[in-house]
Amino acid sequence: MLPGPEARLARVCEAAVLAALPEAVPHPPVLAPGRTSLDGVAPAYSLIRRLPGDTLDRRWPALSAAHRHAAVARLGEAQRALHAWTPRAGLVGPLPTRTASSTATFTWPTCCGPSQAG
Length: 118
Fold this sequence. Notes:
The protein contains four helices and four strands; from the N terminus they run αββααββα. It is an alpha+beta fold. The protein has a domain at 4-53 and 87-117.
């Protein structure tokens, strides 16, 4: 888990990437990135809309061979769409890293500049 501003930056960037994904890549919409204070630590979070349904790992044992094949095919389609997607310039970039001296080194992607990380 990234601390402080780095965690907030990660959530802001996560929200921007999710909002830019093509519809062919199933994903929940991000309602809001945010942070809270817990014992002096400010963990970041992304509030996402709950999607109807169940997880595949829970349903898998009860699926017929045909339904398993269809599920794997849909996963493959989503993966192909994701790999074919080209994010707009500046949407993604390296997240901040910490050196041994705990000094943060930031490289800001365009979508997540310093004004959006706070």
